[in-house]
Amino acid sequence: MKLLRHGPLGGEKPGLLATDGTIRDLSGAIGDLDAARLSAEGLAEIAALDPMSLPVVDAATRLGCPVSRVGKFIAIGLNFSDHAAESGLPVPEEPVVFMKATSCIVGPNDDVMLPKDSVKTDWEVELGIVIGATARHVSEEKALDCVAGYALIHDVSEREFQIERGGTWDKGKGCDTFGPIGPWLVTKDEVGDVQALGMWLDVNGVRKQTGTTATMIFSAAHIVSYVSRFMTLEPGDVITTGTPPGVGMGMKPPQYLKAGDVVTLGIDKLGSQRQTVVAFDAVYPAAAE
After folding, report:
1. What is the pLDDT of residues 31-50, one digit of tens each?
2. What single-letter DSSP state applies at residue 221?
């Protein structure tokens, strides 16, 4: 299934993408796509519905993050060896773990807003893992049993904040609008082999990133297992798993996003996103509506 949330910012309703390409509203059948609904039982109840019997939603409707009330937004850094190389950093022996603020989450086609005083806002296409069952010290062999599905994520990053301002990476990763997720949460059965998905990102129609999840240093199963050793993963948590090479920081000379740029990105089976980059607006979230 391809599950989604549609409607205005702050007023999203649950839905799904039917096989005929139409968006169907689920709000009459379920409350929301929240932690309780992401269990195997909750997803089975949705799968038992007849999508063609559900109300059709206007195709032009805004899409929000497909998960309601994300609990933790966890990120893995330097998970592609060639991206580590372009960043001038060694390939990690263990996953690099940091956090993105849940307040940075927006819909897949909402604007990306440059932070105040930003000089190095960068792009990163990434595979997202959506947790559907509690994972605590779970083995790698059983880790994917705790996964509800996968989603496309744009891990927008302010490199000066991240690298040059001291402390951890988090402050360059959690700025408002820095976490577009969606368009869909795609369930595991529909994705199949999550380590065989093509990835791409364009800026103003020019290809910047081309990659595949096959070259991730640490697989989705390894990441879920590893992170569960240090914190309990709960339904509704999201893990974004690293980016292939081609980020602006790694170009010679470096290239960074500016107001007016248009970023498009996608992952096989998980859909695509399109964002316009806008200048800082102190009245946010109006800038993302």
Report:
1. 999 999 999 999 999 999 99
2. H
Burial tier of 59 (Cβ tally within 10 Å: 0-12, 13-18, 19+): exposed
Residue 94's alpha-carbon distances to 76, 78, 91, 142, in angstroms, are 10, 10, 9, 19
Rounded to 5°, the CA angle 130-133-138 comes to: 100
Q: Distance between CA 45 and CA 29 in Å, rounded?
A: 10
Residue in the structure block whose two tokens are 């993050």 = 65
Q: Give the separation between CA 109 and CA 265, rounded to whole angstroms.
A: 10
Positions of the chain with pLDDT lower than 50, given as ranges = 287-289
* Angstrom distance (rounded) from CA 270 to CA 186: 6
172-191 as b/e: b if 16+ CB within 10 A: bbbbbbbbbbbbbbbbbeeb
Mode of pairing for the β-strands spanning 112-113 and 157-158: unpaired
Q: Using one digit for the tens of pLDDT, what is the confidence trace for 100-112?
A: 999 999 999 999 9
What backbone phi and psi angles, to 5 degrees, belong to 264?
Answer: -125, 145
Query: What pLDDT sits at residue 85?
Result: 78
Let me know if 19 is exposed, middle or buried by CB neighbors in 10 A (0-12, 13-18, 19+): exposed
How far from 98 is each of 102, 155, 272, CA to CA, in Å?
A: 13, 12, 25
Check: CB of residue 24 under 8 Å from CB of residue 35.
Answer: no
Q: Measured between alpha carbons, how far is residue 217 from residues 35, 62, 76, 113, 160 in Å?
A: 29, 35, 11, 31, 25
Residues 6+ apart with CB under 8 A from 86: 245, 246, 247, 249, 250
